[in-house]
Design a protein that fits this description.
Elements (H helix, E strand, L loop, with lengths): L5 E7 L2 E7 L5 E5 L6 E2 L1 E2 L2 E2 L1 E2 L6 E7 L6 E6 L4 E6 L10 E9 L5 E9 L10 E4 L14 H8 L3 E5 L9 H5 L7 H16 L8 E6 L1 H12 L6 E5 L18 H4 L5 H10 L14 E6 L8 H13 L6 E6 L10 H19 L2
Parallel strand pairs: 13-14, 13-15, 15-16, 16-17, 17-18
Antiparallel strand pairs: 1-2, 2-3, 4-8, 5-6, 7-8, 8-9, 9-10, 11-12, 12-14
Helix pairs in contact: 3-4
């Protein structure tokens, strides 16, 4: 409660909005955020600070091109003022983030954020990185990652898809992408890829897909179902063996979202999209960089080892199929900065080589 008002945070089409209500619950208006972005939270706690009798609200905000910045909202003047931003040698003014909607196979509208230069030409020749997750009731809201700035400065387009299986639209959206509905997630991602091609933002030879963990499964499933659609694939620490995932470390806990291979009916669903089991010999798969770590105790590296080996055996053509194994590292959290830089540098170098940038 600030300024004798209740300030509420809304998730609207996967980005945040702040709304004002009086003490009787009547809507008073919006607090306009600096752009399409996110109010930064810590766990389940909002970083909204103010006093009931004061006419100012403090909040932390970030976007794809804005690092976490503290803003002050003045209730009397209805303006936002940035009062602290980390120093960053990056000019965000040439770039824009916009939201579009792709239509999935069953007609569902799938939101997607596009970040690119304002003067981007729609000639089908822009290197594009499409990122997704789609699972475990996790929403992908706009967030700042400094490594993405290098991709943007190279002329790349960043596309982030908000797939079913997350919580962008509540529990119904989550359930529409889990268990027997998991194929919807892959259909959504494929629809987003087809959208950026149809709109001539990019083309198949310039389109890369990337995701980690459950997102690695996403990439693996999509590249096996539609190998013709993508110009590169980067499945990172992915769940690739859907028939044995539950037998290793924390994998048993994922049965709630994936189903159990020990159940005859759920086995059929899992087998139908399991990346490891749907590779077809003699198929031209896109250039692929599998990323994993030798001490990953969440998604054990065996998933990536088996998938990379099977992909190399099945693959036809000259496109590279590589695996990058980070030693003395785990699922991704807690890596030293130097190790993170090395990993991202290798990923960008792979895409630069494949796309001939």
């Amino acid at each position: 409660m600030v300024h004798d008002e209740c300030i509420a945070l809304y998730l609207h089409d996967a980005y945040h909005q702040l709304k004002r209500f009086d003490l009787q619950g009547n809507f008073l208006g919006d607090i306009s955020l600096p752009g399409i972005g996110s109010v930064v939270t810590e766990g389940n706690f909002l970083n909204l600070t103010g006093k009931r009798r004061h006419a100012e609200l403090f909040y932390a905000y970030s976007s794809f091109i804005t690092p976490v910045t503290v803003f002050r909202y003045d209730f009397d003047r209805h303006v936002n003022e940035a009062i602290f931003q980390p120093p960053l040698d990056f000019d965000s003014s040439p770039y824009i983030t916009r939201q579009v909607f792709a239509t999935s196979k069953d007609g569902t509208r799938i939101p997607m954020f596009l970040t690119h230069r304002r003067d981007m030409r729609t000639n089908g020749n822009n290197p594009t990185l499409l990122y997704g997750y789609g699972g475990f009731n996790i929403a992908l809201t706009p967030n700042f990652t400094v490594s993405r700035l290098a991709w943007l400065e190279l002329g790349g387009v960043l596309a982030l898809a908000n797939l079913r299986g997350g919580k962008e639209y509540g529990e119904a959206w989550h359930k529409a992408g889990m268990l027997e509905n998991k194929q919807n997630v892959f259909d959504d991602f494929i629809a987003c890829a087809e959208y950026v091609i149809a709109e001539q933002i990019t083309s198949t030879p310039k389109l890369a897909i990337m995701g980690g963990s459950n997102g690695g499964l996403l990439v693996g499933a999509c590249m096996t179902q539609r190998p013709d659609l993508f110009g590169a694939a980067i499945p990172s620490v992915g769940v690739m063996d859907m028939l044995r995932f539950h037998r290793f470390t924390i994998g048993w806990a994922w049965v709630s979202d994936y189903g159990s291979p020990d159940d005859p009916e759920q086995f059929k669903t899992l087998y139908a999209y399991s990346p490891l089991h749907n590779l077809q010999s003699g198929t031209h798969y896109p250039p692929t960089l599998v990323v994993t770590a030798d001490h990953d105790d969440r998604v054990v590296p065996g998933h990536s080892f088996k998938f990379a080996a099977a992909l190399q055996a099945a693959h036809a053509g000259d496109a590279p199929v590589l695996i990058r194994v980070q030693t003395r590292a785990g699922h991704g959290m807690g890596k030293p900065t130097a190790v993170q830089i090395e990993e991202v540098a290798d990923i960008w170098a792979f895409l630069l080589q494949v796309f001939e940038i």
